[in-house]
Amino acid sequence: MTSQAVKIQGVQHYFGSGNLRKQVLFDNQLQIEPGEIVIMTGPSGSGKTTLLTLIGTLRSVQEGSLEVLGQQLLGATDDDRIALRRRIGFIFQAHNLFESLTAFQNVKMALDLFDFSPEEVSSRIRELLTRLGLGNRIDFKPASLSGGQKQRVAVARGLVHRPKLILADEPTAALDEKSGREVVTMFQEFAEQEGAAILLVTHDNRILDVADRIVRMVDGRIKSNVLVQESRIICEFLKDVPVFSKLTPRTLTDMADKMFLEAFPPGATVIRQGDAGDKFYLIREGRVKVEVERDGNVRQVAELSKGSFFGEAALINHEPRNASVVAVSDLQVYTLGPEDFQRSLDASATLEEEVRKVLFERQ
Ligand SMILES: Nc1ncnc2c1ncn2[C@@H]1O[C@H](COP(=O)(O)OP(=O)(O)O)[C@@H](O)[C@H]1O
Ligand SMILES: [Mg+2]
């Protein structure tokens, strides 16, 4: 049993078969802790909904490991999936309300699988719909509700059974600012009070502030994965590192948003001499030693600590790694992929100049 609400490792996904088989998810990793609110953004068609439906057991996992609330979904039986689904709340864009049922009855469907007393059912539904501003619409059918009202019924239906995992696809897109805020405030309460984990696909900038973490999906790959407070911490941190200190807040924020946090135990090799360069590293915590091997002799050339960076040389010169870097204590680093690193250099002449200066001094 894992303690994470969601643990995704190496998940790939394909649509179609034969010549038409098309890969839409590539080697994704993601973990969500209980009580955590994760927002996923990314362009249309990048694979967000596909990933969400895999997590929600609405699609079968083809490749990779996907654990949801302790249940491994790769190879899970239908019974496993059905049992798990009761602990998940879904709020999808196409809200699929039953036209012949009232708001109350639509929400009630989510409770039909449970043994609540009629009083409990009624009070939960009324309370939730009232909070969502639908107190005077409880017995209305979808046809007499506006788009935003229908969306709020769908939100109530997704939350009424107090799920431990909430999956929401653009839940606030059809809502005005006030109802959108009410919905995300409820998400926050579920996260805090019930320890629910929440994965929210959205482009709604108005609600980014509720996220503990923002991940970005591009072309089927999760491209960045950073704590929101972390993003601020990175900015603060970068400002104090001489090489970044002259950057504009804009460039700093852009860089911070694209960085991943990675951890290594003492003794772990972070980069290996001779390998191709694939990342830029900035030390958040801990120390590393830099070693160069020549003619079979290994020589330590530097020890770096908090605020130092490494890995820039291979990216700038497009050459293999010219040294190995080994963690000497528990190490946390921020990493930046080559394109994002290059983009940051392009965005800022001062950064490029500063990085090159350090590079020159090191060689
Ligand atoms: N049922 C399906 N059959 C075939 N291709 C699909 C299906 N659903 C989605 N896709 C394709 O998979 C890719 C990812 O889609 P989707 O997960 O809906 O992206 P997003 O939610 O980020 O807009 C797109 O190229 C889309 O055309
Ligand atoms: Mg989608």
Describe the structure.
With 363 residues, the chain is α+β, with helices and mostly antiparallel strands. It is 33% helix and 28% strand. It is built from eleven helices and 18 strands. Strands 6-7-8-3-9-10 form a six-stranded mixed beta sheet, with helices on both faces. A four-stranded antiparallel beta sheet has the order 2-1-4-5, with helices on one face. Strands 11-18-13-16 form a four-stranded antiparallel beta sheet. The protein is elongated and about 80 Å long. It starts with 5 loop residues before the first strand and ends with a helix. Bound molecules: adenosine-5'-diphosphate and magnesium ion. Magnesium ion binds next to α1.
Helices, strands, pairings?
Layout: E1 6-15, E2 22-32, E3 37-41, H1 48-55, E4 63-68, E5 71-72, H2 78-85, E6 88-91, H3 103-108, H4 118-131, H5 147-159, E7 165-169, H6 177-194, E8 197-201, E9 213-218, E10 221-227, H7 228-240, H8 249-258, E11 260-264, E12 269-271, E13 280-285, E14 288-294, E15 297-304, E16 309-310, H9 312-317, E17 324-327, E18 331-336, H10 338-347, H11 349-362
Parallel strand pairs: 3-8, 3-9, 6-7, 7-8
Antiparallel strand pairs: 1-2, 1-4, 4-5, 9-10, 11-18, 12-17, 13-16, 13-18, 14-15, 14-17
The protein binds adenosine-5'-diphosphate and magnesium ion (MG).
